[in-house]
Amino acid sequence: MTDTVISNRPKKVIYDTDPGVDDAMALYYALAHPDIEVVGITTTFGNVYVEQAATNALYLTALAGRQIPVTRGVSQPLVKKAAPPPDHIHGADGLGNLPQRMATQGALDPRSSAQFIVDMVRQFPGEITLVAVGPLGNLATALQLAPELPTLVREVVLMGGAVLESGNVSPVAEANIWNDPHAADAVFTAGWPLTMVGLDVTHQVILPLSLFRQIAEHHQHIATDTLYHAVAFYSAFYNERDAAVGQINGCYGHDVLAFVVLTNPELFTLQAGRVRVAVDGLAQGQTMMQRKAISYPQHGWHDEIPHTQVCMNVQAESCQALIEAILKRDWMQKPLLALIK
Could you tell me the pTM of the whole model? Predict the structure, then answer.
């Protein structure tokens, strides 16, 4: 495993998410990593309805003993009709249908997710990284509120899309992009430093369920017990659907790789090119990448369209070893439980 490089100042991150099982993996990786400071969690619809996403973000952070601002964001796509959440993948509650939940402390920040992003980026210009692992409506709305946002953000890392790999909601489309293609195209063309972590790499990293059992046994903590339960539900879906995953008895990590590329970019091979999103028709949600330096006559590929850094390959074994090492660190605190009167 490549050693984790620890800087003197952890990266300030706003985590834009729709938890979601792999979102929970990613959150706990971020909280466990000494080089990341999660300064806010902005929630969106996607794996669950946005109200459930916000509830899950509050719950997961409280279980880990952390107090982090959580906001509720967009509840539907900018233009297209919303699709129902995939409860057969993540469970109706997003966390594998937990049999019960502890009563925990925590309340939502009253700001919208988009306003929270704008406020924080203005407060810490050049310091905030946006890590987005759901549909991109919060980022697109923040751009509408503050067109200068790309000049204030340190960088954006998103989990979504596919270039060469087949899609997972259509032959060409990945779920996060497909859920809100108009928002995604606005994000890809905004002009901020942007890295795309899509199915091209997330389908290379299959995480065994046994890994999360070992992590839970290592910590003996409600947070990792909850994560293990959620991953077991999630893995059952993938084991039935994908023969390669079924051989391992595991799942794709998807969202956690957005944080891995932030902390350990040397594990990835990246290629720069313009990325656009098909917003309607059979190709709706497709991320199209200009991979050759050709001057195309079709509008939409002109020089003013910014380049995106796209992850094309990953060192899968090193990536899994890193995830295990980080999640086994001593990072959790006593759960923030509600006072029962």
Answer: 0.96
